[in-house]
From TrEMBL:
<keyword id="KW-0472">Membrane</keyword>
<keyword id="KW-0349">Heme</keyword>
<keyword id="KW-0408">Iron</keyword>
<dbReference type="GO" id="GO:0020037">
    <property type="term" value="F:heme binding"/>
</dbReference>
<dbReference type="InterPro" id="IPR036909">
    <property type="entry name" value="Cyt_c-like_dom_sf"/>
</dbReference>
<feature type="binding site" description="covalent">
    <location>
        <position position="79"/>
    </location>
    <ligand>
        <name>heme c</name>
    </ligand>
</feature>
<feature type="domain" description="Cytochrome c">
    <location>
        <begin position="62"/>
        <end position="169"/>
    </location>
</feature>
<dbReference type="Pfam" id="PF02167">
    <property type="entry name" value="Cytochrom_C1"/>
</dbReference>
<dbReference type="InterPro" id="IPR009056">
    <property type="entry name" value="Cyt_c-like_dom"/>
</dbReference>
<dbReference type="GO" id="GO:0046872">
    <property type="term" value="F:metal ion binding"/>
</dbReference>
<keyword id="KW-1133">Transmembrane helix</keyword>
<keyword id="KW-0479">Metal-binding</keyword>
<feature type="binding site" description="covalent">
    <location>
        <position position="78"/>
    </location>
    <ligand>
        <name>heme c</name>
    </ligand>
</feature>
<feature type="binding site" description="covalent">
    <location>
        <position position="205"/>
    </location>
    <ligand>
        <name>heme c</name>
    </ligand>
</feature>
<dbReference type="InterPro" id="IPR002326">
    <property type="entry name" value="Cyt_c1"/>
</dbReference>
<feature type="binding site" description="covalent">
    <location>
        <position position="75"/>
    </location>
    <ligand>
        <name>heme c</name>
    </ligand>
</feature>
<feature type="transmembrane region" description="Helical">
    <location>
        <begin position="251"/>
        <end position="269"/>
    </location>
</feature>
């Protein structure tokens, strides 16, 4: 009796689940979700070309150094790079002395050897980029109740990450009159900033790059807002995928081996089974 009851209960839940699924599918197909300001005015990333695009692309170390300069002078005031160590910057072409000088320019948590108390000390090449805030409460207090995300993996965490960062940096603007006319309740709240490349159109981050020449490049490149945005997007791509070039270089021999193995396997098949009846 108990077995029959358990089977009936199982069948009931199976039928109920199937019915809910079918009903939900019919509803989704026949009743489209309402149009919102986010659906209509959110834009995908802009088209932008980087030196590392494509299967043969490579990083441009000069661009990466410029991008790091933008991060250091602008972005690091709010965003950390907790998965990147100062010594990793040697891959961008910095010398050992330059890496040490860059690290020393940051303060990192440490311990006083005499008292054992927590203190701040100059960074060393083995340290990782520190957070600009002591904790989440301090981060929220300084950023309109929003916690600035760590940028170590931001280009991997967003669709078309490099283009997304570039688009976000160059996308701040006034709300279109068309949006306010069609969706009057979607007016950007006080303390937020309109950007059509952000998913919900409004974000707490103020435009970080506001004028040409905001960062003075040492290599003579003209530091327009567009150029600085592209450079920092390239740097953050490297931060997220420092082995990108090596991964591409490794991929080609593997593809070649797989192609050779496929041809060899086919020829072996033809040789061994050619006179066999299938």
């Amino acid at each position: 009796m108990a077995r029959i009851l358990s089977i009936l209960v199982g069948l009931f839940f199976t039928v109920a689940l199937a019915w809910s699924f079918v009903l939900g599918a019919i509803t989704a197909a026949t009743e489209p979700s309402p149009l919102t300001a986010e659906k209509k005015f959110h834009l995908g990333p802009k088209e932008v070309h980087f030196s590392f695009d494509g299967p043969f692309g490579k990083f441009d170390n000069q661009q990466l150094q410029r991008g790091f300069q933008v991060y250091k002078e602008v972005c690091s005031a709010c965003h950390a790079l907790k998965h990147v160590a100062f010594r990793d910057l040697a891959a961008l072409g910095y010398t050992e002395a330059e890496v040490k000088a860059i690290a020393a320019g940051f303060s990192v948590p440490g311990v006083d050897p005499n008292t054992g108390e927590s203190t701040m000390r100059p960074g060393a090449p083995t340290d990782y980029f520190p957070s600009p805030f002591a904790n989440d409460v301090a981060a929220r207090a300084a950023n309109n109740n929003a916690i600035p995300p760590d940028l170590s993996l931001i280009t991997k965490a967003r669709h078309e990450g490099s283009a997304y960062v570039y688009s976000l940096m160059t996308g701040f603007q006034e709300q279109p009159a068309e949006l306010l006319k069609e969706f009057p309740d979607a007016k950007t709240p006080s303390g937020l900033h309109y950007n059509p490349y952000f998913a919900n159109l409004n974000l707490a981050m103020a435009p970080p790059l506001v004028a040409d020449g905001q960062v003075e490049y040492g290599d003579g490149t003209k530091s327009t807002v567009d150029q600085m945005s592209k450079d920092v997007a390239a740097f953050l791509t490297w931060a997220a995928e420092p082995k990108l070039e090596k991964r591409k270089q490794t991929g080609w021999p593997i593809l070649g081996f797989l192609l050779f193995a496929t041809i060899l396997g086919y020829m072996s098949y033809r040789n061994i089974w050619a006179d066999k009846k299938h």
